[in-house]
Design a protein that fits this description.
Keywords: Signal. The protein has 253 residues and is mostly beta strands. It is 9% helix and 41% strand. The chain has two domains: 91 residues, Immunoglobulin-like, CATH 2.60.40; 113 residues, Lipocalin (Beta Barrel).
């Protein structure tokens, strides 16, 4: 063994063989270069759209939209400082790909999640409200599968809704042809599970409908879908709707 060590020392001294070990500085430089494209802004911290009941798990994603119509998921190596504002309500698991809502989480509590993109000091944030174990909730993403008894005075039918979204902060959005993060219009909603009454208040959008019925009733189906009565989400002609406007949606995502 001593002979081998001596021989190796002589070879290295002669410059015939060289060895280099990775350093912390090298690793930091690699991460900085890898993450530089994600430091330009347009970040979003996303949480799976479903009721955050105690004991449930929600998928987590962090994305960047550096230019319109392009959304890219940010790799985990470029994300740091993961935080839950109330650790008693939830924690990140599975390499921060999942949020676990703790069984002892207090229903009604609003919890903020945050993360930083490597190289930046301003965190990306989102929040969720802890739902009751048996709470009737509309939270989720849905797509229209059928509409019956609904047309305008000129005979036009409603535009098919490719994506209808409800969150736990009382916001909704409608997209006729989903593409990346684009939405046609959005606003707030009020829902009373006891009476099934729903009221939609449109507050902005890229393509606002000239008509629509914004008050009616909604029922949850056995497979998690929604059936609206007396609610219409808009048509191309903008004329008033007639009929019962019964529209069914399937849950997805």
């Amino acid at each position: 063994m001593m002979i081998l060590r001596r021989l190796l020392s002589l070879v290295m001294a002669a410059g015939l063989v060289s060895f280099s070990m990775p350093t912390i500085a090298h690793a930091a430089d690699w991460k900085a270069a890898r993450c530089a494209p994600y430091a330009s802004g347009g970040h979003s911290l996303g949480l799976e759209r479903k009721p955050a009941r105690p004991g449930t798990s929600l998928r987590v994603s962090v994305t960047q939209s550096a230019r319109p119509g392009v959304v890219e998921r940010i790799p985990g190596v470029c994300l740091t400082h993961w935080k839950v504002s109330d650790p008693r309500s939830g924690r990140f698991i599975a390499n921060n790909l999942t949020l676990l809502v703790r069984r002892g989480a207090v229903p009604g509590r609003v919890v903020t999640l945050s993360v930083r993109v490597r190289g930046l000091t301003t965190p990306v944030e989102t929040s969720f409200r802890v739902a009751e174990a048996n709470e009737v909730s509309l939270v989720g993403f849905y797509s229209q599968i059928e509409v019956r008894g609904c047309q305008t005075e000129t005979g036009a039918v409603p535009v098919n809704v490719g994506e209808l979204s409800f969150d736990d902060a009382g916001r909704f959005s409608v997209t006729w042809q989903p593409f990346e993060s684009y939405k046609d219009y959005w606003g707030h909603y009020a829902y009373d599970p006891a009476t099934a009454r729903i009221v939609l208040k449109v507050e902005g959008g890229n393509s606002l409908p000239g008509n629509g019925r914004w008050e009616g009733r909604v029922a949850l189906t056995a497979d998690g879908g929604l059936i609206f009565d007396q609610v219409a989400f808009g048509s191309a002609d903008g004329a008033p709707f007639i009929g019962s406007c019964r529209t069914e949606f399937r849950r997805h995502g």
